[in-house]
Amino acid sequence: xxxxxxxxxxxxxxxxxxxxxxxxxxxxxxxxxxxxxxxxxxxxxxxxxxxxxxxxxxxxxxxxxxxxxxxxxxxxxxxxxxxxxxxxxxxxxxxxxxxxxxxxxxxxxxxxxxxxxxxxxxxxxxxxxxxxxxxxxxxxxxxxxxxxxxxxxxxxxxxxxxxxxxxxxxxxxxxxxxxxxxxxxxxxxxxxxxxxxxxxxxxxxxxxxxxxxxxxxxxxxxxxxxxxxxxxxxxxxxxxxxxxxxxxxxxxxxxxxxxxxxxxxxxxxxxxxxxxxxxxxxxxxxxxxxxxxxxxxxxxxxxxxxxxxxxxxxxxxxxxxxxxxxxxxxxxxxxxxxxxxxxxxxxxxxxxxxxxxxxxx
Length: 361
Fold this sequence. Notes:
Layout: H1 9-24, H2 29-34, H3 38-56, H4 59-68, H5 74-91, H6 94-108, H7 116-132, H8 139-148, H9 152-177, H10 196-214, H11 218-231, H12 234-237, H13 241-260, H14 275-289, H15 291-298, H16 305-314, H17 324-333, H18 337-360
Keywords: Membrane, Transmembrane, Transmembrane helix, Transport
Membrane topology: Multi-pass membrane protein
Subcellular location: Membrane
C-alpha cells in the first residue's frame, strides 16, 4: 500500500486547518470528531472497492473500444458521456454515476488521444445538474425531500423549471467546450485478457450492495465489498485511501467550523427572511463547507425549502469543495492539471446557476 497521498497539498491543507481550529477551540475536538459520518465513508469505501474490481477486470478498455466505434468526434463523445452522467445521477445518485463514467473515461485514454480531463469535468458538472432534478439524486435533496413532505413528483416539479434551464446551459457548454476533432484510435492491443470472473462478481455485488445501503445497513454493505477485497487483495492495495482520509478530514474540519458560529449569526437568515438572501447563503456556505453540511446547517433556520434547495444545489458548482461529487471526480482523475481546468469551467457555470436560480425563485 502506497502512502504517497500523504504528500498531497489538499490533504495537508485539511490537516493544517483542523489543527489550527483545534488550537483556537480545543473544547471542540470531541464534537468535530463526532461529526465524522461513518455511513458515508462505508458507502464510499464499498463503492471504490467494487469499482476497483471492475477496473482490474480490464473490461473498461473493451467497453471503451465499443463506444469509440460508435462516435466519431470528441464532441459526440462528450455529449454521450455527459448525458450518461446526467441520466445516471437522476435515477441513482451523483457519486454512483461518477463511479461508472469516470473509470470508463480514464480507460478511453488508452485507446485514443481524447481530451479526457475536459470529459471528466463535463461529467462532474453533469452529475451535479442531473442529481438536483430528483429527490434521490444527491444527499441534500434526500434530506430536504424528507423535511418538505412533498411527494416524489412534487419535489421534481419544484426543481424542474430551473433544472431544465441548467441542462440547456450545460448542453451549450459541452458544444462550445469540446472539439469537432475526429477520434483517431490507437492500434488495438490484442494481448489484453479480460478477467470475466472478477468483472461479473464485482458487477453482481452492486445490486445487493445498494440494497443494503438503501435499507440503512451500510456496515453490512461495506463488509460485502470487503469480501471481494479479501478474494483479490490487489483491490485493497490500489484503493484510493487518500480519498477516504480526505472525506474524513472534511467532516472534522466542518465540525470545527460549525463550532465557531451558528445560523442565527448569519445576517438575513431566519424565518420569514428574503428567499434570495437564503439562496445566496446556501451557495456561499456550500463553497466553504460543501453543500451537504451547508444543508444540515441551514435547514432548521428557514421556512423556504425551495430557496435552500436551489442554493445548496447551485453551490455544488464553483469551488471543488462545493460538492463532494466534484472531489470524487477530481480525485479519481489523479492529475494535478485537472483541478485548474475544472475551476475555469465551474465558476462561469456557478454564475449562470446564480442568475437563473434567482429568476426561478
